[in-house]
Amino acid sequence: MITKQAIEAFGSIRTPFYYYDMELLKETLKVYTSYTKKFGYNAHYAIKANAEPRILQTICKAGLGADCVSGNEVKIAIKNGFAPSKIVYAGVGKSDREIKTALKAGIFSFNCESVPEIRIINDLAAGMGVVAKISLRVNPDIDAHTHKYISTGRKEDKFGISPWEFQAVADLLKELKNIKLIGLHFHVGSQILDMSVFPLLCRMVEQLQSWFIDKKIKIDNINLGGGLGVDYQNPDQNPIANFKDYFELIHKNLIVRPGQKIHFEPGRAIVAQCGHLISRVLYVKIGQKMKFVILDAGMNDLIRPALYQAHHDIENLVSTGKKTKYDVVGPVCESSDKFAHNIWLPETKRGDLMALHTAGAYGQVMAMRYNQKDLAKAYYSDEIIK
Length: 386
Ligand code: LLP
Description:
Number of strands: 16
Shape: elongated
Radius of gyration: 22 Å
Order of helices and strands: HEHEHEHEHEHEHEHEHEHEEHEEEEEH
Largest sheet: 8 strands, mixed
Distance between the termini: 18 Å
Bound molecules: ligand LLP
């Protein structure tokens, strides 16, 4: 919900821009950490969802660690206050340079995605005279029932180590002297709203970790990744994700061994609802079939609708006119540069301020300069509203 005061302040800001409601971010973190504290869980925020310094610093202050997927994310995490001892690093294609960055920083865990990667981390760690702590990212072959581009735990996905490779990994661990196995890591997809996926994941974790426990290989840490979805359809009614059901389901279904620590990597559920893309209407054009609202924001600012056919609620922040049906599009020279098709909006005209909601996660971070557009800047509620 964007307040009247905020809309007034928007008048003097160059559009398009990202607007972050810092009160909602703090409230979300308060609810999230109330559950992690209650159950004694550890959380590492997935920096890929939003890496703006103010957002990172707020999340860091709330006590979360960081989940990174590149050497630069590791550097950004440290720069913004995250302790290396709370940083995990995943990704199927870690380069030698990135691995060295993380080794130098002394991160908590490399979440390893293949046997060749484990060998390279060992060699680089040996060269630096250190021991790398690793977890195995396991592909549990679970369908997260989400968009195919953001499903990561099915047999056909590129992520994780397959269970049939466990023996090879166990043999390797005996041979490699600069690797220490500290846990297992899972992440089966993103924007998961089918809650039955999480008990299923817990059952798979139990089945897969038993293999190691039977072989007397200690698994001190279980990392269940991120993935909890948010309500893109009704952001005002559900500004905070369903952390209650999520954590209660995990607590009920996960068998935790004595001394074992449980970790999570939330991204979207922390930052999605606090972010909005604010744009102005450039033109309203009557097409052959549709009426088009043409915004000054495009797929270069928010690519999710073009890439995943994602829905973002669109609001005209200033008009109370009669409802009319429109297509809402951006200025980029691609037909896929469309935010919504055939939606009801109050009568809209040139200059109206529009908000695309639920844009805090995978919005600004995925922006690009296609058509040589400028990158949208970030503005924060506690800075623009006095
Ligand atoms: N952990 C790992 C290993 C991941 O790959 C991801 C997201 C997360 C945690 C955080 O997941 P979340 O809690 O945000 O669902 N660009 C796409 C989403 C890509 C997600 C990639 N991995 C989108 O806009 O929907």
